[in-house]
Amino acid sequence: MDEAKWYVVHTYSGYENKVKANIEKTVINRNLQDQVLEVIVPLETVVEIKNGGKKSAQKKMFPGYVLINMVMNDDSWYVVRNTRGVTGFVGPGSKPVPLTPTEIKALGIMMPGEEAQKPIVQFAGKIGDKVMILSGAWENTVGEITGINDSKQCLTINVEMFGRETPVEISFTDVKLM
Predict the structure, then answer these.
(1) CATH numeric code, 125-177
(2) What is the pLDDT of residues 158-177, one digit of tens each?
(3) Domain 5-120, what fold?
(4) Using alpha carbons only, how large is the chain's radius of gyration in Å?
(5) Helix (H, G, I), strand (E, B) or coil at 144
(6) Which residues neighbour 120 within 8 Å (Cβ) at sequence distance 6 or greater?
(7) CA 20 to 30 Å from 165, out of 20, 53, 74, 81?
(8) Residue range 124-163, pLDDT digits in tens
(9) Residue ranges per domain, the chain?
């Protein structure tokens, strides 16, 4: 038997979960569990910070796409390709191209023995807003945001120290908007 690989399927936007459910149901009905191993709609946890409160939400990483771990053959291809809401496999022409291990890792798909990623935090404030530091050496200090670094999940704020403004880098989760 061939090795299972990850493939990307393009769907109508908003139909990702329905396509996932339909493929899973068809796989069970046709007894293809050994050929279509897993169907996922990639989600990411986003934490929004508004008015000092944290709110977690699940968002689709790639609207309009579903990932499938499957052994590519005529039966598995037919089941996926003819599922309602599927527009086709990602790849040139009608030939599906499997994802490389590097692409799989970049998508955040967990392979056996790997650790989960930290959730992404979105900060609701903007440059010029005032924030209060909630913990650490600067606890209860108020400062003005001078920079926002989404990739490092931190802010640069100016705080008063010895009578003058000093820039301090602090995590999104350690501040609240004033």
Answers:
(1) 2.30.30.30
(2) 888 788 888 888 888 888 88
(3) Alpha-Beta Plaits (3.30.70)
(4) 23
(5) strand
(6) 44, 45, 46, 47, 153
(7) 53
(8) 788 999 988 888 778 888 889 999 888 788 889 988 878 8
(9) 5-120, 125-177
